[in-house]
Amino acid sequence: MDYTRLRRCIQIVGLVQIFGVSWSLKCYTCDNEHSNFLCNSEINLVECEDGMDTCQTIVGYSDISGKLFIMKECTKNESCQLQAAESREAPCNLELSNWICTQCCYTDSCNVNGATILTYTNVKKSLFLPVFLLLIII
């Protein structure tokens, strides 16, 4: 048995524990912001808790407030998929007076650009689309 190799493995495991090396997912988080820019500061990039394997972004518009709302968070894939399925019931159609779009992604910082899953039927006719895309990119 190669004790040098075993000792090296034990040292590496010890260093990982000492320095707290983490392989957790990192997601941008924000709640009810009106601009994607406000969600994307470095302070909003957080390490997700154990078990959280998905970055979720929800973008919507309410005719009551007349504003976009953006929410980003760490979540579990099942929860995000459920939210996305519910969003499909009130499709991400920019011609509606109220709409919501949900995006699930799975890599570090993947939710930087907001929800991009749009219902493209009738979106071409919408004058709101360029403004929406600018707000998401900014």
Automatic annotation (TrEMBL):
Record organism: Sinanodonta woodiana
Domain UPAR/Ly6: 24-112
Alphabetized UniProt keyword annotations: Disulfide bond, Signal
Gene3D superfamilies: CD59
UniProt-recorded name of the protein: UPAR/Ly6 domain-containing protein
Top-level taxon: Eukaryota
Protein's UniProt keywords contain Disulfide bond: yes
